[in-house]
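Mods, move this if it's the wrong board.
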Amino acid sequence: MNVDSIKRRLLVKYPFFGSVVANSNFIAEPAVGTAGTDGKTIYYNPNFIESITDEEQTFIFAHEICHIAFDHIFRSEGKDKDLWNIATDSVINAFLKQDGLSIVEGGVDIPEAINYDAEEMYKKLLEEKTQQQQPNGQGNGKNQKGSQQQSGGNGQNGNNEQQSQFQQQSSSSSESSQEQNKQSKEQSCGGSGEDLQKEEKQQDVGHDTHSMWDKAVEKRHQEEQTQSNTGQSNDKGEDKQSLLDKSSKMFDKKKEQQSQLQQLDENQNKEQEKKKNEEIKKLTELGEKETFKQNKILRKKQLEELRKALASESHGYGNTTNSEIRNITDIGTAEPFIDWRRLLKEAVKYDVDWSYQNAGIEDGVVTAYLEEMPRPETEIVLDTSGSIDETLLRNFLRECKNILQTSKVKVGCFDTKFYGFTEIKDVSDIDNLEFYGGGGTNFDAAINAFTRRVENKIIFTDGDADMPSTPIDAIWIVFGRIEINPPGGKVIYIDTEQLDRLYSNEISSNSKGKTR
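Not the wrong board. Structure tokens:
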């Protein structure tokens, strides 16, 4: 597992949490059942993390980052810990789910939590718990008894049905998490010992452990007390020692350099910790709702700036090509933007395939005959210039997979020159393609690449270049906001709304291109 890669994913998806992500430590700890944090460091079970998908890994670590960013551990003091655990997890998970991440099995999933900050959600749960615990001897015992009979003996009236659902969810999540933690710790520790029993006394909720929260609060109190008692005298002692060191003639020069480097590292760490704490304070004051809202705005702005920067960089290359190789991973599949069966020309090339339609039986064995099966033939050129980021290229390729279901396909890429076609026989050929490019954009190079006899010619691009001088009957698929006027052919735009969904990993299953 590559922790740096996960950090990069978090920084891209959650730029508003930048300092917290960058300055939090990620430590592999097999004794942790799944993952957890003490407010400074994120601990994870490597076996658990490696057993889940990349998206689930992003969810798990984003969840822990949120606990740190919103100071959930140290805001738990004086609260009902079980309810605070449910409140914080439900709010975090609701917003991560809204961002397109899938909640890992066992996580607290309360859709209504999307409308609350953690404090608000805690207050709501606490009020409902208090109402449920009202004694029967306060004039409402008969009503409660009647309500019990009406609800099948559960003792839950209409006002408390939702709290009952919350309790059932949290109980189920807690049991799942505790069992998972216990099994993992028994495997790594050789059985259930005293430490394991102590940790299990702390109620855990969902897919992560909260069992280190109490210790973290206690440790902070001890550090604050120590700093309060010795801070002033330590400062004076350090100043005095510094003067002695500087005045000493026998001070080793090499040691002095090492000391200076160590001091620089310490100062840098203090500065990073200070920046992280300032960000935690800011995010805590904003609250979960406003923070996730601001993160979405910032992420959209950064994506827009990235596209502009790449487009500008592309123009800067002029007629040069980088010829750099890119390998695109995790291409996946998606519902088509376009109805390719209707769009591709009806002219077909005949392909030879095995058919059992007119099969015969010889010596008791069914024998198939070769038949000519009509399939259209399509050549696709992909814009791989500097203005095309991995997200666009990945979605170009998903559409190529959709076209492959309808037609024979050849795929090639271009920037200021064309790099040749590759025949695509199945989707694995697309997954294993290498892509050259990274320079400027020359559409003449693209259209000159097509074979004349092929009727279906498709160009995937962001449209950011001068149009070709030669007319060509091709289909231009434009991902972006640039309107183009090619000499001949048809233009299909993947519009702004579809692009926003694309960049948010929320492509609608019924999205269709806007044809001109």
